[in-house]
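Pasting as-is:
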Amino acid sequence: MAAIKDVQRPDYVYIGGETDVLRRMLDHYRATLLWKCEDLDEEQLRQRSVTPSELSLFELLRHLTDAERYWFQVCVAGRQLSGGFEPPETLVEDVLAHYLEACEESRQITATHSLDQITFTGVYQREVTHRFVLVHMIAEYARHCGHADLLRESIDGATGE
């Protein structure tokens, strides 16, 4: 039974302020990842690209949940978070719920922080702005949506932008 259904991808903001353009672009990519997972069952979502790689749509959802939490909750909002996911046998429904929750939390943080806000030094060992975090996450999603496109095509032949 498919865990992800009826994904609605928001269109880009073609003319607008920087914040609106960046936020909508990121939301478009978030929805694109879900769209690539739409109507697949648990076994299909866990199907790996090639052995010995761990890459699967399921693992992409887990990875991007952690990326959302790290970059927005830790770097931008300055929170202390513990742990990531539970063991690999975590159900798709749980991973999806964590992913959606992390995305919503990121949206709320973005809505309440200036693009010019300096965040703490993270993986780059230097200060970055909230703007950098948004652009970094757009790039992160763009890469992984390309992976998701290839994974989906290998599962059932479905392709699309």
